[in-house]
């Protein structure tokens, strides 16, 4: 209630410039804001900048955290770092910002990214339209008025023409429903909801569940601090060396001089990196040639071995076997104990069909005396106890238990909000069998609702800031074009949505991806529909598709009037 009052006072106290910024005809408008944006991470901050600073619209951003940063606000676990190179894990919309900002290492760490986003919030004067510590709990489309009514856990109810979900794809942290989950009496943490003040594991016995991208970053560092660390692994991963470190000043300089070139290449690439597939099939090369290609990428570190590899490794099992087997050999070389090495070796899925983590000393961590690996497929976790955890074969005691168990990806953050479209229909009910979107951006029956990097868009298969900028810019263009033609609402046709959703599945099922149990498939959440969620067509082609749709008078959309 207090926040609602604050908000009213703020409105009354608006300067004339601010009032001018509301755009022509604002006084007649029946909404509190032109747009409500949910989330103040990479997406929400840029969306606000575009809408308010560039287009002169009014917007309010609601953010659950008590600071900006989104993913980089919450994920403060040891080792939290982007797996994309820092020079492109950045905004590109402002050349000066990109030129001025100095990243200290090849990959940006959590604190540095959060600092960068704080800087962005200040630089573009965004904070005054961001309401922190406020979670959006509901958004209902009023069909008569053509506006969204948005409610928050702080008691606000505001109206807006546009409702923009910049909620992130990996922001709904999940703890698996293991029996006794809440019985543990020691400290427990989820990596995606890490305490702001950090955690000191010195002298402690620690258990960690999960060996995804997060667990793989955290385990070597927790191992260095803790007295003893037990790692509970369900699925072994193929992790690639990150090879982090400072970037050669000459390389940095050359990059700074090639702003246009870099972003032209990155935006039109498949995955939003400066990486390109080898234009041959893996089996067209001799084993010696393949070895050279794999080794070069391995030595360079990073995603080159994943999204810059032979073009057929994602679709042809035999081609994929060559890289999967090559990766298994690298693991065997690095882990001293053959039994532990075998446990760490993935044999149940094809390389690259699960998100490939980057690592720094991950495999070596298992050579330490204070680290133990438990394969929970072999010996399932039966129960979490007040003092630790029990598997089929043994009982473990811990001072602290870490859940590196991931997220209800892509749909989770949206389904946690009661989003009601035409006829009061709930989005999560519409999506009961899996997400249905047009372009991963909109959904039929939910006018003026936009998802930034939603299910059905390239998003998580790409370098996120690149996809985020494309979506934010496309949404801005739609909103601008609507203003120009006097349209009040836009929504996709059922047919366009069906065709797009079918296209997303068709592309996925032509590859090996759906055969692996991944969060891309919803397989990490019991009961979640098994539907491949991201769009596999590539960021560059997707961008072209969006541009073409806009040019063709918003083909697949209905604009009203
Ligand atoms: P992930 O990649 O979903 O990893 C979660 C890990 O937790 C993974 O190893 C899971 O095993 C494991 N897990 C989940 N539930 C259980 C249960 N019930 N028992 C044992 N182990 C379990 O999440 P991350 O946070 O690592 O990474 C998310 C994304 O963030 C990442 O892909 C990047 O894009 C950034 P599983 O593999 O499902 O068998």
Give a short synopsis of this structure.
By secondary structure, this protein is α/β, with parallel strands linked by helices. It contains 19 helices and 20 strands.
What does this structure look like?
The protein is α/β, with parallel strands linked by helices. Helices cover 34% and strands 16% of the residues. The chain contains 19 helices and 20 strands. The chain has helices at residues 2-12, 16-21, 42-54, 71-74, 95-100, 110-123, 213-225, 249-256, 259-267, 287-300, 304-307, 317-334, 338-343, 362-365, 412-415, 427-430, 464-485, 494-509, 539-551, and strands spanning 33-38, 59-62, 130-131, 136-142, 147-152, 157-165, 187-190, 205-209, 228-233, 240-241, 358-359, 371-375, 381-384, 388-391, 395-397, 400-403, 418-420, 449-451, 489-492, 557-560. Strands 1, 2, 3, 4, 5, 6, 17 and 18 form an 8-stranded mixed sheet that branches. A 5-stranded parallel sheet has the order 7-16-8-9-12, with helices on one face. Strands 13-14-15 form a 3-stranded antiparallel sheet, with no helix packed on it. Strand 8, helix 7 and strand 9 form a beta-alpha-beta unit. Helix 3 (42-54) packs parallel to helix 17 and helix 17 (464-485) packs parallel to helix 19 (539-551). Mean pLDDT is 95; it is low at 1-27. The structure holds ligand NA7. Ligand NA7 is lined by residues 170, 176, 178, 191, 209-215, 232, 234-235, 355, 376, 381, 404-407, 460, 519, 524.
């Amino acid at each position: 209630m207090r926040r609602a009052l604050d908000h009213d006072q703020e409105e009354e106290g608006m300067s004339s410039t601010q009032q001018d910024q509301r755009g022509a005809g604002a006084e007649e408008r029946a909404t509190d804001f032109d747009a409500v944006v949910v989330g103040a991470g990479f997406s929400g901050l840029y969306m606000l900048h575009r809408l308010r600073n560039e287009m002169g619209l009014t917007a309010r951003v609601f953010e659950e955290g008590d600071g900006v940063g989104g993913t980089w606000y919450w994920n403060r676990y040891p080792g939290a770092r982007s797996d994309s190179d820092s020079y492109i894990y950045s905004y590109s919309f402002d050349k000066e910002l990109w030129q001025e900002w100095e990243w200290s290492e090849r990959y940006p760490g959590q604190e540095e990214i959060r600092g960068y986003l704080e800087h962005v919030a200040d630089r573009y004067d965004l904070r005054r339209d961001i309401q922190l510590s406020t979670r959006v709990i509901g958004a209902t489309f009023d069909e008569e008025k053509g506006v969204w009514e948005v409610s928050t856990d702080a008691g606000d109810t505001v109206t807006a023409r546009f409702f923009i979900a910049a909620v992130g794809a990996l922001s709904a942290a999940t703890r698996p429903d293991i029996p006794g989950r809440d019985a543990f009496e020691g400290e427990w943490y989820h990596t995606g909801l890490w305490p702001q003040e950090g955690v000191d594991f010195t002298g402690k016995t620690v258990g960690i569940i999960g060996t995804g991208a997060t667990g793989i970053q955290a385990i070597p560092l927790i191992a260095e601090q803790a007295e003893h660390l037990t790692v509970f692994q369900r699925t072994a991963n193929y992790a690639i060396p990150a090879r982090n470190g400072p970037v050669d000043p000459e390389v940095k300089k050359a990059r700074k001089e090639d702003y246009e070139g870099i972003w032209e290449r990155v935006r039109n690439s498949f995955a939003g990196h400066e990486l390109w597939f080898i234009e041959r099939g893996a089996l067209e090369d001799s084993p010696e040639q393949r070895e050279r290609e794999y080794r070069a990428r391995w030595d360079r570190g990073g995603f080159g071995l994943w999204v810059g590899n032979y073009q057929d490794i994602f679709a042809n099992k035999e081609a994929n076997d060559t890289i999967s087997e090559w990766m298994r050999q690298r693991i065997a070389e690095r882990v001293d104990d053959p039994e532990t090495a075998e446990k760490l070796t993935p044999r149940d899925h094809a390389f690259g069909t699960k998100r490939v983590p980057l690592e720094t000393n991950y495999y070596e961590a298992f050579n330490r005396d204070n680290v133990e690996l438990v394969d929970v497929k072999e010996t399932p976790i039966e129960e979490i106890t007040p003092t630790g955890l029990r598997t089929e074969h043994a009982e473990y005691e811990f001072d602290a238990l870490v859940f590196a168990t991931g997220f209800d990806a892509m749909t989770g953050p949206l389904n946690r909000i009661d989003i009601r479209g035409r006829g009061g229909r709930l989005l999560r009910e519409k999506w009961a069998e899996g997400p249905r979107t047009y372009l991963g951006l909109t959904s039929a029956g939910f006018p003026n609702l936009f998802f930034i990097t939603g299910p059905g868009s390239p998003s998580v298969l790409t370098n996120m800031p690149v996809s985020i900028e494309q979506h934010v810019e496309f949404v801005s263009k739609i909103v601008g074009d609507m203003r120009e033609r006097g349209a009040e609402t836009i929504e996709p046709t059922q047919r366009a949505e069906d065709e797009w959703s079918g296209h997303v599945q068709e592309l996925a099922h032509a590859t090996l991806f759906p055969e692996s149990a991944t969060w891309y498939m919803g397989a990490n959440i019991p009961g979640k529909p098994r539907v491949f969620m991201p769009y596999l067509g590539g960021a560059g082609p997707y961008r072209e598709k969006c541009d073409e749709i806009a040019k063709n008078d918003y083909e697949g959309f209905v604009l009203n009037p």
